[in-house]
């Protein structure tokens, strides 16, 4: 998917690909969803949902607005199980607004950059 700097997108860790009314089918790896406004991106993060933007500085600004306290940057994690391609650099860098990890009452992630960028960085 082609993403544009300065634009925010829905982010789904697992995207539902089945048609409405059909048997539920989901597929990982299709995380970046449709473009959304900055206001909707902020509302999603407040609600504990995840968003994506291409630029690190846009992600930092949004994460700063989403919760009190400095956002905490995390490099991509290793996948919990081997991928079919055996690659480990399959996730995105992200911020935790206010340093809080997603959970009940906490904000969601703000993902950014390219898939695997910064993998293995400390």
Structure notes:
The chain is an alpha+beta fold and 122 residues long. The protein has one domain (8-78, 87-112). The protein is 16% helix and 22% strand. It is built from two helices and eight strands. It has helices at residues 38-46, 56-66; strands at residues 8-11, 15-16, 26-27, 32-36, 50-53, 72-74, 93-96, 110-112. The strands form two sheets. It has a six-stranded mixed β-sheet. A two-stranded antiparallel ribbon has the order 2-3. Helix 1 crosses helix 2. The chain is globular, with a radius of gyration of 14 Å.
**Helix proportion range:** 10-25%
> What's the story with the biggest beta sheet?
6 strands, mixed
* Integer count of domains: 1
Shape, please?
Answer: globular
Beta-strand percentage range:
15-25%
- The rounded distance between the terminal residues' Cα atoms is 28 Å
Quick check: average pLDDT? Answer: 84
Treating each run of at least 4 consecutive H or I residues as one helix, how many helices? 2
- Low-confidence stretches at least 5 residues in length (pLDDT < 50)? none
Please give the radius of gyration in angstroms: 14 Å
Class computed from helices, strands and strand pairing? alpha+beta
Q: How many runs of DSSP E, i.e. beta strands?
A: 8
| Strand adjacency order, main sheet | 4-1-5-8-7-6
What is the H-and-E element order?
EEEEHEHEEE
């Amino acid at each position: 998917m082609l993403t544009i700097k300065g634009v925010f997108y829905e982010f789904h860790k697992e995207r539902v690909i089945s048609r409405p009314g059909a048997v539920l089918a989901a597929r990982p790896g299709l995380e970046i969803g449709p473009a959304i406004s900055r206001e909707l991106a902020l509302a999603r993060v407040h609600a504990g949902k995840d968003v994506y933007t291409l630029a690190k500085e846009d992600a930092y600004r949004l994460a700063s607005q989403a919760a009190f306290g400095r956002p905490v940057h995390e490099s991509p994690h290793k996948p919990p199980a081997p991928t079919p391609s055996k690659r480990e650099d399959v996730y995105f860098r992200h911020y935790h607004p206010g340093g809080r990890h997603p959970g009940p009452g906490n904000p969601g992630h703000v993902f950014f950059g390219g898939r695997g960028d910064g993998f293995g960085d400390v």
